[in-house]
Sequence to fold (193 residues):
Amino acid sequence: AIAFAGGGLIGFIITIFRIYPIKTLNIFASSYIWLFQSIPLLMLLFLSGLGIPRLFSIDINPWSAATISLVIFTSAYLADVWRGAIQNIAKGQWEAASALQLNFFMTFRLVVFPQALRFAVAPTISFLVQIIKGTSLAYIIGFQDLMLLGKRWANAPVVGSEPFIVFPLMAIMYFCLCYPLALYARRLEKNLN
Fold:
């Protein structure tokens, strides 16, 4: 939830920078998106949880490292999804709003955003599912999550906690988290269309 909310906020700002008619902001936003989409989430987790703390001799707890990595990763992808939804709106909409003397932000808020929302909802919720599954990688830096718990259970010397029992149970838990979101995305997209 934190990764989605924080990444959504930063992603929205990056999206505005990407479509705003100032070239410097466009270049910054494009570079941000390109950089953080090019780095795998696992590498971001390693860098924020192990690399940067060791390089600068600082202590970052796994919760903060996982949060930073997931927020950055999410913001880059959501910014690109939302930019695509906005660019899917016909240029004539921008031109008509300009003819009515609406500035960029009024055009965006009143004309473009309501239409782009239809195109953005399903991929946004689908990416939320990806973030939920992506949190399973955070155990690598010691983040206490479902995956780390499952790994401990699977390695416990207790009868019935074998990996071939524990990991399928974890897969079912992830499925129970993700499948309702996928159904919700489908229904929401249908309602918006």
Q: What stands out?
A: The longest helix spans residues 104-134. The CA atoms of residues 90 and 112 lie 9 Å apart. The chain has eight helices and no strands. The mean pLDDT is 88.
